[in-house]
Amino acid sequence: MSTQPDFIRDIERVDASVVAKAAQFPASILADVAGRRGTLCSRVAPLSPSMRVAGPAVTVEVRPGDNLMIHAAMAIAKPGDVLVIDGKGDETCALMGEIMVSQCKASGLAGIIIYGSVRDIEAIREIGFPVYAVGANPNGPTKNIAGRVNWPISVGGTAVQPGDLIVGDADGVVVVEREKAGSLLEAAAKKVADETKRLTEIRGGGPLRPSWLEGALRKGGVLAEGESL
């Protein structure tokens, strides 16, 4: 009986054309049309609000405080990939800093999502490479303990499979299953159009009350049938 190695080099990625189209939408839009699920907890935030990221996930699981497998993942990741690292939410030391982020940028990666801490954040902001983390700590990591690359992981309360679509902006990060991502693009475009229309109404002196409100209140038992606000 064969066993899957802890270090997997080859994965099936979400299609590049889907990534390019999904990158045009806010993370909030994609999360809504994906069923209002798949978002990382708000502890995982961009080092700068202007940072944006979109691409297929290369997943990494490490022991808290050890970044050996991050280096391994960086060695096999392809241009456009997003490193998604389960650092167990540890804030006692940084798992990445300016040198590693510079290497990721030079390798053509799209960004880093890390459920853990980083350091050299002023330098990373100057580099402009998208990094999302739970915090900063000047303490450095060890490089002693094996973990896993391109296995399913849990990051910030959300499951991530290798090759899944990752989209992040100032609001945070959403994960969409690789097989599902393409089917959401039309719904995302419609939601953007609907929200744009609603904002135009509000800003142009149109009706302020949403059209669905009374129906929802009746369904919830707040308003009786035939009763209005």
Residue-averaged pLDDT, rounded? 96
Number of alpha- plus pi-helical segments = 8
Order of helices and strands: HHEEHEHEHEEEEEEEHHH
Query: What's the N-to-C terminus distance?
Result: 67 Å
- Percentage of residues assigned to helices: 25-40%
- What is the assembly state of the chains in this entry? single chain
The level 1 CATH classification is Alpha Beta
Classified in CATH, the superfamily is: Ribonuclease E inhibitor RraA/RraA-like
Describe this structure in words.
The structure is a single chain. The protein is 30% helix and 25% strand. By secondary structure, the protein is an alpha/beta fold. It has a single domain (16-181), classed as Ribonuclease E inhibitor RraA/RraA-like (Glucose Oxidase, domain 1, 3-Layer(bba) Sandwich). The strands form two sheets. Strands 1, 2, 3, 4, 5, 6, 7, 10 and 11 form a nine-stranded mixed beta sheet that branches. The model has no long low-confidence stretch (mean pLDDT 96).
What is the topology?
Blueprint: H1 16-22, H2 27-33, E1 45-46, E2 53-61, H3 68-76, E3 82-96, H4 98-106, E4 111-118, H5 121-127, E5 131-133, E6 135-136, E7 148-149, E8 153-155, E9 158-160, E10 165-169, E11 172-176, H6 178-181, H7 185-203, H8 213-219
Parallel strand pairs: 2-3, 3-4, 4-5, 4-6
Antiparallel strand pairs: 1-5, 2-7, 2-10, 8-9, 10-11
Helix pairs in contact: 2-7
What would the keywords be for this entry?
about 230 residues, alpha/beta, Glucose Oxidase, domain 1, nine-stranded mixed beta sheet, two-stranded antiparallel ribbon, elongated, RraA/RraA-like_sf, methyltransferase, metal ion binding, metal-binding
